[in-house]
Amino acid sequence: MLILPSGNYKNQSTERTDSKPVAQNKSQSSYNMSSPKFDTFEKKSLTCAYCKKIGHLMADCFRLQKKNERDNKPKTSACTTPYITSTLECPASQAFKSSFCDYMEEYKPFMSDGFISIVDDTTLQPIKILRDTGASQSLLLEGVLPLSEKTSVGASVLLQGVELGCIDVPLHRIYLKSDLITGPVVVGVRPNLPVEGVTLLLGNDLARNKVVAEPIVTSEPVDVKSPEDDAELYPACVVTRAMARKQQDENLQEDQV
Fold first, then answer.
1. Cβ–Cβ < 8 Å for 185, 115
2. Is 120 within the bounds of a domain?
């Protein structure tokens, strides 16, 4: 005969009913994890993927937000450069003008006039030449002559300036007539030159060791008449009455003799 232990059955049912409060205890524990203490603990375990600092995520990163604000600002596409107009009379503009005039005055001993043309053309174009003793390549201002593939030598040269950057300069063959060199020469062509008013920078490749033109000496003196008298060399003189009377006496003595 099988006897079911009623007491044990009740205990099992009691355990089943007791399992519900256990589940409630779990939910209660999860509620406690959202307390401020757990929030502090959770932030300490977070690391930002952008700034690598602890306590926040990249979505809340203050540094990343500042960077995005700077990147989103409108940017201008125009390039500006400082320019001093002639109407300004401030000391800074006057100093700029005086320094410009000073170095132009220093260039005068090395500047000369010359002529250039295409090799096969007899029409000479007047130019202003600056002897540059620090240049290893002579440079011609672009647009002075109608250069083409016929004048090109099919090569270029790499030039390096004080900024240590290299530029590729095409080479052309032209005819040059100057005090230092005359004949067909090969020069580099640039859209602009560093000195205003200069058409050709005459470098050491053409002028070699010549800096200024050598003086020409003749065996017989040459009388050169200048259309304008120099006031500094020939100052105006005043003839006094005594000098005029003396000149008259000398003339009378010559007539008597």
1. no
2. yes
Q: What angle do CA 153, 145, 136 make, to 5 degrees?
A: 55
CATH number for the domain spanning 178: value is 2.40.70.10
Q: Count Cβ atoms below 10 Å from residue 117 Cβ, excluding itself.
A: 15
Examine residue 176 and state whether it is found in any structural domain, yes or no. yes
Residue 146 lies in a domain: yes
pTM check: above 0.70: no
Per-residue pLDDT of the chain (257 residues; tens, 9 = 90+): 444 444 444 444 444 444 444 444 444 444 444 455 545 656 667 888 888 888 888 888 888 888 888 777 554 444 434 444 444 445 544 544 445 556 667 778 888 999 999 988 788 999 999 998 888 899 999 999 999 999 999 999 998 877 778 889 999 999 999 988 899 999 999 999 888 889 999 999 998 887 776 666 667 776 766 555 555 555 555 556 777 777 777 777 776 66
**Strand ranges for 93-198 from DSSP E:** 111-117, 125-131, 139-141, 152-160, 166-177, 182-190
Look up residue 15 and give its amino acid.
E
Q: Which residue type occupies 96?
A: F
- Angle subtended at Cα 188 by Cα 183 and Cα 194, rounded to the nearest 5 degrees: 115
Report residue 228 as tokens.
């304008």
3-class secondary structure, 257? coil
Domain assignment present for 125 = yes
Domain, as residue range, for 160: 110-207
Number of domains within the chain: 1
